[in-house]
Design a protein that fits this description.
This protein is of the alpha/beta class. Helix content is 39%, strand content 14%. The N and C termini lie far apart (74 Å). It binds adenosine-5'-diphosphate and magnesium ion.
Length: 447
């Protein structure tokens, strides 16, 4: 069975209008993916749905097409999709515009970092469908520019991510403010008890379209491996790896914004065409980096987890976990940026000596063995002076400790040591006293 596509079905079978089916075909989609063929027919009937499928399996169209199908041209603010990041708001709106090209519906992304006045003007034109980040939608609602009372279908995309990054209260507030009867759909790559609870709370008899076979969370086309590396040697290894693997487009994930900038600087100095992407950057810059990424007009992007979810760019053929994340879910989302649309991709994680248990957690979650690769032609680097000094100090302390310990051992005087070995069992003369197990005393014959 095809892992992603439902080749027995066409979009026409899913209850979508001709206009939508034609636009979808124009996007080059032949068959729906499994989540699309399960979710779309129910969603167009108006059911509330909790849907789950792996990253890169077409969840955007799964919720986007039913919105386009159910919203009418004369219904302003009827579709509301909440997404966790600005980049995703832009991407989802863009994709829905393509699917809805023949419907005449207007779609607007609304997100933080954009000028309020500019957005206010766009909202005054009463778009049919809004794709937005939670903070900004509440702000616009408070200003009276974005009413909730017209919402016909509300969607939460990437629900797991929303909860991770602390949108919990915002989501509750928004969903709780839509008081009239409406349809609600959640989609997520992973489902937790908290998400199920949220669904029960805000949905009316939700259909459960979560996969029972979610054991393997990553698509099998991603070839996963790791390289053992000392923390101070990562940058050098990265340069080597990029030379060796010759990827077309690489996405590198680091834990902090500072590391993102440092790694990007280092690669730039070494002649790579690099951009960084993290939340402290100006929105204009973030948009221009995303544009270069989408156009494939850059070699390497070094990013924080801002880019870990939802971002859908063709041709990312290598994802590097420069810092292994503490949370294995994040690993899954990061590597889901490659091997999209059934293509192949590689994911390589840098694992430092103390991160073995973290790697095991990842393997447990993904149910995939992450194999080690060793670049034999990559000589390990020399530790920096600071680390060499600290190590020398550690070593000296350990030596001293060992010496002290061996001196404190009971040593029999030489004369005694040379006594008649036949007096001892097996001829072995003890060099220390009896073991602690015996309470440090020899057994007496009294008992
Ligand atoms: P997810 O949200 O599940 O991670 P996306 O909705 O971002 O996945 O889709 C991943 C990629 O697959 C996108 O580039 C999208 O255009 C493409 N895609 C989605 N559905 C289909 C389909 N039925 N046929 C071909 N490509 C598809
Ligand atoms: Mg998605």
């Amino acid at each position: 069975m095809n892992e992603i596509f439902d080749s027995q079905t066409t979009f026409k079978d899913l209850g979508l209008s001709d206009e939508i089916c034609r636009a979808v075909e124009d996007c080059g989609f032949e068959h729906p993916t499994h989540i699309q063929s399960k979710l779309i027919p129910e969603a167009v009937k108006g059911h509330d749905i909790l849907g789950q499928s792996k990253t890169g399996t077409g969840k955007t169209a799964a919720f986007g097409l039913p919105i386009l199908q159910r919203v009418e041209k004369n219904e302003p603010f009827a579709g509301l999709a909440l997404v966790p990041t600005r980049e995703l708001a832009i991407q989802v709106a863009r994709e829905m515009e393509k699917f809805g090209a023949k419907t005449g519906l207007s779609i607007l992304p609304v997100y933080g970092g954009q000028k309020i006045t500019v957005q206010a003007r766009k909202l005054e034109r009463k778009p049919n469908i809004i794709i937005c980040t939670p903070g900004r939608v509440m702000d616009m609602n408070n200003r009276g520019l974005l009413p909730y009372n017209k919402v016909k279908i509300a969607v939460l995309d990437e629900v797991d991510r929303m909860l991770d990054i602390g949108f919990r209260e915002d989501i509750r507030r928004i969903l709780g403010s839509i008081k009239h009867k409406h349809q609600t759909v959640f989609v997520s790559a992973t489902i937790s008890p908290e998400i199920e609870k949220l669904a029960r709370q805000y949905m009316n008899k939700p259909m459960d379209l979560t996969a029972n076979d979610a054991k393997q969370l990553t698509v099998s086309q991603v070839e996963q491996s790791y390289v053992a590396v000392e923390p101070w040697d990562k940058r050098r290894l990265l340069r080597f790896l990029l030379k060796k693997e010759k990827p077309e487009l690489t996405l590198i994930f680091c834990r902090t914004k500072m590391t993102v900038d440092r790694v990007a600087e280092d690669l730039k100095r070494n002649g790579k065409d690099v951009e960084s992407l993290h939340a402290d950057m100006h929105q204009g810059k973030r948009n221009s980096v995303m544009k270069r990424l989408r156009e494939g007009n850059v070699d390497v992007i070094v990013a924080s987890d801002l880019a870990a979810r939802g971002i859908d760019v063709d041709n990312i053929n290598l994802v590097v976990n420069y810092d292994l994340p503490e949370d294995p879910d994040i690993y899954v989302h990061r590597i889901g940026r490659t091997a999209r649309r059934g293509r192949d991709g590689k994911a390589i994680a840098f694992v430092t000596p103390e991160q073995g248990p973290l790697l095991s957690k990842v393997e447990q979650l993904t149910n995939v063995e992450v194999t080690q690769v060793a670049y034999d032609d990559c000589e390990p680097g020399k530790p920096p002076e600071k680390i060499r000094q600290a190590r020398a100090k550690e070593q000296a302390a350990a030596d001293q400790h060992r010496e002290k310990k061996s001196r404190s051992k009971i040593q029999l005087p030489d004369a005694e040591a040379q006594q008649d070995t036949s007096k001892f069992p097996g001829g072995i003369v003890p060099v220390s006293g009896p073991k602690k197990r015996l309470g440090g005393r020899l057994r007496t014959r009294r008992s």
